[in-house]
Amino acid sequence: MSTEVGGAVEAPRAPALSPSRAVDFRRCALLYRFRAVDRLPETPSPGALRGTVVHAVLERLHALEPGARRPEAARALARGVLDELAPDERALLGEEPGVDELLARYFALEDPRTVVSEARELRIEAELEDGTPLRGHLDRLDTTPNGLTVVDYKSGRSPSLRAEGPMMFGVRFYALLLARSRGVVPTLRLLHLADTTSLTLRPRADELERFAGVLRAVWAAIRRAAPTGDFRPDPGPGCAFCAFKPLCPAWDGTPPAYPGWPGDTVTPLPRPRAGEPG
Ligand code: SF4
Question: Which of 82, 106, 119, 275 is 20 to 30 A away from residue 98, measured at CA?
Fold first, then answer.
């Protein structure tokens, strides 16, 4: 089964594996719970917010007629997107949000007037054979003479060798989503705007099959933890950047009560009887 949704207002949906949530779970099960089950709010970093603005500008730019996709149009769209930000978000970006510079680097990477895109900001869902639900959000899906190309904008720099793992995880995830929903293995283009670098690759079909096995195992582990909320903390260097540290038992915090897996009936754990250890 697969579905595609583009540009629609999203209703609350059952959890599914997305590249970022799968990476979260592999890094720390409790981090996954806070984001995917509790859906606790997080204040974005200035860099993440800048990336969101640039993504919105590029989405609008590619909605224009090809001939109109010029740098001055992008700068005008950027002013519009910045004006739409809430005052606290605008303050987070500061006086010089750096958006125009990232857009200039984008134009150094490709000429958007030559791009033929089938969709922008496209949500794709698919299921693996065992029911593992996958969900991804494509920045752009291009049609080229060589087939479909998934384009992913990255507002940061291209990763170091050490940080390549999560990026490759996302690349394989998007390729698998397209392979399962469209029956084709797409080409993937990553546009790293901060250092004006692009990376083009096409995973092999056998590589994707092995990767599907990894995702099945991740989802099975999530579903095992889901009924009771047994998502355990896994402290490591990433804790320094975790917004939920004050709620984390690994750092003397107390998590909120487990809200239950969305859509499941929560069976309360039996209360200990008098005289039994709690
Ligand atoms: S602080 Fe560390 S261990 Fe705790 S939830 Fe965050 S990443 Fe996990």
Answer: 119
**What average pLDDT does the segment 226-246 reach?**
96
- 16-224 maps to CATH 3.30.70.3270: no
Report the nearest-CA residue for atom 2 of ligand 1: 239
In the reported structure, the alpha carbon of residue 210 is separated from the centroid of ligand 1 by a whole-number distance in angstroms of: 28
Per-domain residue ranges of the chain: 16-224
First to last CA, the chain: 45
φ and ψ of 114, to 5 deg: -95, 0
Scan for tokens 């969900």, then name that residue. Answer: 135
Q: How confident is the model at residue 96 (pLDDT cuts 50, 70, 90)?
A: confident
**Per-residue pLDDT averaged across 143-158, rounded?**
89
- Report the sign of the C-alpha dihedral through residues 62, 64, 68, 72, in that order: negative
Tally of CB atoms within 10 A around 69:
20
Distance of CA 222 from the midpoint of ligand 1 (Å): 16
C-beta separation of 256 from 38 below 8 A: yes
What is the tens place of the pLDDT at every residue in 180-200? 999 999 999 999 999 899 999
**Ligand 1, atom 4, residue with closest C-alpha:** 248
Residue 234 alpha carbon to ligand 1 centre in Å: 6
- Mean pLDDT, the chain, integer: 88
Tokens of 168: 């490759």
Question: Which atom number of ligand 1 is nearest to the Cα of residue 249?
Answer: 4
CB 218 within 8 A of CB 179: no
